[in-house]
Design a protein that fits this description.
Length: about 270
């Protein structure tokens, strides 16, 4: 019993697994002993040591996903490679898909920081948008080989891995806020309709999702076709948005806003799962 309790403490205790049972039994024991607080990728460790253990498990999982593939990597293998018990791994990540959520969170944060740094010295909207999209491609580049392996699951609208799911809300909110900065930091924002300015960050995030979809299936060297797609589509998107400020296009803009509000935004999860 003492061993079981130790395996579920967020202290990074080492061990090759939980003795005397299967991986499923380890899940049950971890669930029973875990404190009554949010679980999975969004659980908030209380100490620097537990945060370090959580980061170690996530880093190990990302390495194994790259080496072995997402489907062939088990939670037991991740725990063994990280030097923690299986119960401890499940304490931080309730299932393998929560590791992908943790990956989403970390990569989105890194992307936002990199993009803001790159676009700090330009106010041209088209340039800022292209910088933000190219920054995502650079940030995601190390993970391209295994991305397609879990995309099949992420493409399911009912999957927690879907970028539109409630579970993906924290990463999505970080990305949408970045695109808000792309617009608000540009010379174009003051010239646009205020309601359109409010909607555009979500629309620009959807544009990123189109880029991501193309990127997942791109097998050219350094995903050059995706990069060319960004280089050619970004100026076009910027011109369309720029034209929206002219009176002659106002009826079209109102229709577009209506479509976005009625059919697109309602499909995106708006709350984080607690």
């Amino acid at each position: 019993m003492a061993d079981l309790e130790a395996s579920n403490e967020p202290d990074g205790t080492t061990g090759a697994g939980v003795p005397g049972g299967t991986e499923e039994a380890a899940v049950a024991r971890a669930t029973a002993a875990a404190p009554a607080e949010p679980r999975g990728s969004r659980a908030q460790p209380k100490t620097d040591k537990s945060e370090a253990t959580r980061a170690l498990i996530l880093e190990t999982a990302m390495r194994l996903f790259q080496e072995r593939g997402y489907e062939k990597t088990t939670m037991r293998a991740i725990a063994t490679e990280a030097g923690v018990s299986v119960g401890n791994a499940y304490y931080y990540f309730a299932a393998k898909e929560f590791l992908i959520q943790g990956f989403y969170d970390r990569m989105t944060y890194d992307h936002a920081a990199d993009a803001r740094k790159r676009m700090a010295h330009t106010r041209d909207f088209a340039e800022r948008l292209q910088i933000a999209l190219e920054s995502w491609l650079d940030t995601a580049a190390p993970y391209h080989e295994f991305a397609a392996q879990f995309f099949r699951t992420a493409a399911d609208p009912s999957s927690s891995l879907s970028p539109f799911s409630n579970e993906s809300h924290p990463a999505r909110a970080t990305a949408v806020e970045l695109f808000r900065d792309v617009l608000q930091g540009s010379e174009l924002a003051p010239k646009l309709d205020a309601e359109l300015v409010e909607l555009l960050p979500d629309v620009l995030w959807l544009h990123l999702m189109v880029v991501v979809l193309y990127w997942v299936f791109d097998r050219t060297e350094d995903t050059e076709r995706t990069r060319e797609f960004v280089r050619r589509s970004t100026p076009m998107a910027a011109r369309v948005i720029n034209l929206s400020r002219y009176r002659v296009f106002r009826p079209i803009v109102r229709d577009a806003k209506g479509l976005i509000q009625d059919f697109i935004l309602p499909t995106i999860g708006k709350t984080a799962v607690k």
